[in-house]
Request: fold
Amino acid sequence: MTFDRKDLTNEQLVHIYRNLLWPRMIEEKMLVLLRQGKISKWFSGIGQEAIAVGATLALQEDEWIMPMHRNLGVFTSRHMPLSKLFMQWQGAQEGYSKGRERSFHFGSNAHHICGMISHLGTQLAIADGVALAHKLKKENKVSLAFTGEGGTSEGDFHEALNVAAVWDLPVIFIIENNGYGLSTPVNEQYRCISLVDKAKGYGMEGIQIDGNNVLTVYDTIKGIREFCIKHQKPYLVECMTFRMRGHEEASGTKYVPPDLFRLWEQKTR
Ligand SMILES: Cc1ncc(C[n+]2csc(CCOP(=O)(O)OP(=O)(O)O)c2C)c(N)n1
Ligand SMILES: [Mg+2]
Reply:
């Protein structure tokens, strides 16, 4: 992997690296707590952190993000207090969803993160709504929504991208293509060569990038953000990565050929 620092200073590089480390360190702790029975559920984003972290750092702090279940790096890069996050995952009253659940179905107005309600695809149209509000108020801002490649098979994906294109909404749609949607591999998920090809069908710009290279993600999203604001248009970004653990910690990875882990392991260390 080659890293192109462009005009980033040493301080900026260290800042990005620290943000990349946070979710990995938290996850390593969570995997221990899970095995001790102190938390009950965990969706791992190990190996995919560069996407959530790079994209979040590329936005302004008051721009809304619609994350999914593997985007811990969004929460940490927006500096949500670790104590409250840990209480959330342990189902404590003091957590973000007041003990109602113990996973990633929560957000925070103060951090401009819109909590998801689990259903795939639903975050995308919410990003349209936020972008429409910015457009009507003539604010120079974007919204950003994440989906997995599995989520692109939902009707909501089509509706959200089509409306964003037709209404010229400044929204960034990020597909995290990690090879699997639960146990379904990509060759059973879609027939196009790349998901980014779908951008053409909606009449919007699109790009496919290396999702494991944090500087590529950061630099690309920063540039796209400016494009979306200047031209008042949406953009589709397909980030190529790999899911290094099970769909959820309880579900295992028996259906994934071991060679794929060996291949991607080189890119996630
Ligand atoms: C509409 C809907 N169908 C099914 C599910 C159950 N489900 C949750 S995550 C998931 C897999 C999603 O795959 P992908 O979008 O590729 O994201 P990844 O888990 O790989 O990050 C499924 C089937 C759901 N939450 N919502
Ligand atoms: Mg997936």
Q: What stands out?
A: Residues 148-150, 178, 180-181, 243 surround magnesium ion (ligand 2) (CB under 6 Å).
